[in-house]
Every structure is written in structure tokens, then in C-alpha cells.
Amino acid sequence: MIGLAIHTSSPELGLAIADEKTGTQRSQTWPLGRDLTAYLHDCLAGFLHPHDWADLAYIAVAKGPGGFTGTRIGVVVARTLAQQLQIPLFGISSLTAIAQHHQLTQPSSPAPSSHLAVALRAQRGETFGAIYQIAEPQVIPVLPEALYSQADWEAQLSVGPACHTITAEGGLANSVAGVLSLAQLQWRAGDRPLWSTVLPFYGQHPVR
User: Fold this and answer.
1) In which domain, by residue range, is 161 found?
2) Are 96 and 145 in contact (CB under 8 A)?
3) CB neighbours (10 Å) of residue 104?
């Protein structure tokens, strides 16, 4: 059983794959920028090899927040694949994926705080933000992701638990490993979400 994760919510493309039988996994990123649409399918086909599309048991996708065009492309491609293959599709928050990736790659951090704040710059000086409790095997949302003015975000940080803060800049596609990790945990717990339930998240209202 193979799981595939897709991250297109930033100028980079991130892909990750896991073999549930062998426990092996790998990931890769490409700085495609505006060429995402032109090369996404070629990157997917090449990265999936030597597996076939029919080997996929589930797909996961970073659903945002992030860049409007990239996020929408990734979600549309993931929905289409899951629908055609008739397999579950997991929509994973880009902010939660960053927090989960941080926990996977730096398991001893943050210390002594047990909470992690993730901030992502939005337009007009605003910030996408969320706060998570660091826990095994996955981070737990304490303050759900939302769009804040910079002043409101700073206020949230001042009244909430002491946090280690990550301000996400470039290289967001590396957190595709976090997308895959969270989807794996849901898959192993028996979750089988329909492709139609996954919508892109742009910070305020999902676009259908």
C-alpha cells in the first residue's frame, strides 16, 4: 500500500511517498515557480516510479493557506487523481504540516516550551497563524489557523502559552513530509475521507 503527498502551496513543488508495507519513504522538492502547471504531471510520474498509479492506497495534499494559484492547482490535481483512482484523499493544513515537519526533524525542540506557533505572511501585511501543542505522534492544534492582522497575531502570542515560533519563509515544500506523516496517522486510524471533502483554504473562505 502506497501513500502519496503533494505540496504546491508555495513556489516549490514537494512530493513524498511512503510504502506502508515496508515502512520506507522518500521526498523531493522542485523550484518550479510559475512552471508548476507545465511540469507537475511529469514530476509526479517520475517520482512515483517504480510504482504504478494503481498501487496508491491514498493521497494527501497541502490544502493551504498559501499561494492562491499553486494551492488550487495542487488540490485540483489531488482531487482528480483520488476520484479517478477511487481512493481516499486527505487535505492537510499547510501550517499544521510545517509544525509536524518541525517535530519530525527536530524532536528535541522546542525546549523548554511544549507549544509551537507557526506564522506565514499573507497579503496586506497580515499573517496566517496557528499554535500547536507538541505531542507524539502528532502536533495538536491549540489555536486553530486563521488570518490575523500583525497586531492581533502578536496579541495572541502574548496571551497564549509560551511558544517557540516559526515564521515560515521559503522552502515550504519541504514540509511535504509533514503532510505525509499526518495523512499516514489518519490512514492507520481508519480514516477514509472522500476526495470531494477536500477544499483549498485561502485564509477566510474555501473556494468550491
Assistant:
1) 95-168
2) yes
3) 16
